[in-house]
Structures are given as C-alpha cells and as structure tokens.
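Review form for a predicted model. The reviewer records the input and the model, then writes brief findings.
Reviewer: anonymous (R2)
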Amino acid sequence: MTSAVKRGATSSTRDRDTQTAREETHLWTRSVHVHVTMKIYFCGSIRGGRDDVMLYRKIVEKLQSYGTVLTEHVSSTELSHRGEDASAAGDRFIHDRDVNWLRQSDVVVAEVTQPSLGVGYELGRVVDMKKKTLCLFRPSSARVLSAMIRGADDGERFVVRDYGEDEVDEVLEEFFNALKRT
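Model under review:
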C-alpha cells in the first residue's frame, strides 16, 4: 500500500471519527435540553371548592409554556370538589403521589384565593423543601389571605403576588423571567 493510500485511509477514518463525535455531541446536547425542562407543581383548591377551575385552566395553560406541569389535573373541569378517584388506595395514594411530585418540582405556583387545607399543607411542605414558590391571590374576591401565607413572603424564595385575572400572563412572565436571572 502506498503512503498516499495510507494517508487517504487515515484521513477518511479521522473524518468519520470527527463526524461521529459531532453526531454524539449533537445527541448529547439534545438529550441535555430534554433534561432541563422545568418541572412545575401547580396548587389550586379541589376539595375546598372548584369555583376558580376556569382560572386554574388559564394559569396551567400559561405554565405549560415554561415547562411540564406535574399537576395539570387540578385545572380539569371534570374534577369535582369531591376530588379524584385515584385508586383503591384513595387519599394515601394522592398524598404520597403529590408529595413525590412536590419533591421533583423545580418551582411551585399556587392560586391561593380559594381557601384550601390541601393547598396550605402543600405550601408548608414547599417552604420546608426550600422551593421557589409563587402564590397568586385576587383581592377582588373580597377574601382575606391567611397571614400564614402572606406572612411567609420573603420576596425571593416564597413570593405572594396580588393580581387580577387579566394579569395572569404578565405576573407569570415576570416570575419566570426573574428565575432565569438567578
């Protein structure tokens, strides 16, 4: 074999190795992108009352533009104030599943206008887990937000924001843009 042929074979092998490395890097980059999708836990009243379910739907639809909403079912109009029939295990199953989702989440968004023991419990767990949290409250409801929620607002990790229904997109955009800066 001549040295020109050997160089050609070596060059061809090197080109193939370089191309393979580029493809592997591209696949790795794409897989990393998939893994950095934000996991969002949305809290809203279920057994405490479903009056705000259409607003929950609007919030969840907007949240989906920022990542995967682990608790999309909270915004379902098919879910009544009686809750979900998750399994024969019932309440224990729901509790354990939801706490697991809380642990997996990167961020928590809660609509806290409709009083709910479950949402309050979730927020207590979230504070303990040190998760970035946004609580949304509508003063126009004529309700008064619990001091345990409003008083937890530290302006950084746990944020309570008063808003009107027409401000949902703007408030969420502001919150998620601030997350990108941290």
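Findings: The radius of gyration is 24 Å.
Further findings: The beta strands are 38-43, 67-69, 107-111, 132-137, 158-162.
Recommendation: see findings above.
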